[in-house]
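fyi for ur records
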Amino acid sequence: MKFISLDASSAFEKAIKTTSKDNKVIVCGCDEDKAYIEEALLEATQTPKEIIRKVANLDIDHWFNERRAKLLSERDLGVLTGEWREESSAKQPFMLASDIMTGEPLPNLIGAKIKTNHNWKVPAYFNFGSWNECPAPELHCAIWKRWQHKYGAYIVAVSNDVIEAYITRPPKTPEEAMELAWEQFLYCPDIVDQGVETIAKLAEVLINHENWYFWWD
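which gave:
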């Protein structure tokens, strides 16, 4: 992995164009994000190849089921699920090329160039995860492999605590969106608990939408 400078006005367009290429561009954020990423890489106890090899032995359906049982033992299912109303018009934009406080484009945007044949392998190159509720790097890879196959989901941005993705086959029906919203909540509870508040509200944003955003506290 090699860090590069990016123009905020074209960074995500460039990242999207490289999703199907072997040399992928990933938006990473500001200098502070870069410092945290470098720290995570220094703390890595396994190589990207070792992380990726673990993916074949993971049962993601089993992981989702265990995660769901654990979280629901502590929650009110009805309150957590909420009620579907309608497709939301407030779609999530890409975030990591902008200042989170002002919304202005970052003047010194950092990116990374990664040589890998499949986009779902990207988290392995960042050693992303294994803190608090954030899954281990191999679980990130396995989940994104599933979503890449099912939804055409491609990671285009990774910071120290954020992943953003471009989606080529988003869910088209409320039922599909609710199924995906449950998986995304189990993967990243913060997007509901500290964000939209219910699974149904998350589904309303996911339907027919090309951007996904995940953040772990």
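The chain has one domain: 2-215. thats all i got for now
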